[in-house]
Design goal:
Metallo-beta-lactamase, Chain A; globular; RibonucZ/Hydroxyglut_hydro; 6 helices; 7-stranded mixed beta sheet; alpha/beta
Length: about 260
């Protein structure tokens, strides 16, 4: 089994990065060898390697967190144990409502996962994850998906941002909402208030505090241009699917105007 690419980004916080979609998994150490596992991803082999890494480092998941209701952030495996897995209430409702489409997505893009464990998340009560470890404050918004719940760890200044503030993806607003660009700006504003020292995006590379602020500024500039119906050159528009999403966002903004 290949050792996953894991690095410690702050005291007691590790990030594993999968090759597929440059997807991140965050591991937060708690007490007595327990850990909080955020968005384990993304292939069956990746989750097996993750479980192996945790075992080798005497860590076991005692709680899981799904940042948002997209298939690549709702994964689990039996090797990770039976820890309770949480998401925001709106994310849980969206996952239940969109179950058929989510299953279609995971079976097409990452086949072989145990679907009896897929998307089995419970609505969080309160604004912090209740687990035996460092404070984990949930920053809930609807920018990228219903009930998107970033996690801020105030003890270490780590912001686990979910699918936002990426260095390889443009902002991807939920275009099915009435005000996608405004809601995305609100979500970015909420994240910016955390003033993070370490940023972990759902897809992309970990950044420090100045890089976090640079990405927020870049995302706001992108949103301002697209919301105004103006095309923009962005260095992240490298993949065909991102250019398609960019065109969809422009069309949505221009239709609204």
């Amino acid at each position: 089994m290949n050792e996953p690419a894991v690095r410690e980004v702050a005291r007691g916080v590790w990030v594993a990065t999968a090759r597929k979609y440059t997807t991140t998994t965050t591991i937060v150490a708690g007490s007595d060898g327990g850990c909080l596992l955020v968005d384990p991803a993304v292939s069956v082999a990746d989750l097996a390697a993750l479980a192996g890494w945790l075992g080798a480092h005497a860590l076991r998941p005692v709680a899981g967190w799904s940042t948002h209701p997209h298939w690549d952030h709702l994964l689990w495996s039996a090797a990770l144990g039976d820890a309770p897995r949480y998401a925001t209430p709106r994310a849980v409702a969206a996952a239940a409502r969109e179950e058929a489409g989510l299953i279609e997505g995971v079976t097409a893009s990452a086949p072989g996962h145990d679907l009896t464990l897929f998307a089995r998340v419970t609505a969080l009560s309160g604004r912090e994850i209740d687990w035996p470890g460092p404070r984990a404050v949930v920053l809930a918004h609807d920018a990228h998906a219903p009930g998107h719940g970033a996690v801020f760890l105030p003890d270490t200044g780590v912001l686990i941002a979910g699918d936002m503030c990426s260095d390889i993806e443009i902002p991807l607003p939920d275009l099915d909402t009435a005000n996608p660009f405004g809601e995305y700006r609100e979500g970015l504003g909420l994240l910016a208030e955390a003033d993070a020292a370490v940023l972990v995006p759902g897809h992309g590379h970990v950044g420090d505090g100045p890089e976090f602020r640079r990405r927020v500024a870049a995302d706001l500039a992108y949103l301002d241009a697209v919301a105004a119906g103006t095309d923009i050159t962005d260095e992240r528009l490298t993949e065909k699917w991102l250019r398609i999403e960019h065109a969809r966002a422009l069309a949505r903004a221009r239709a609204a105007r």
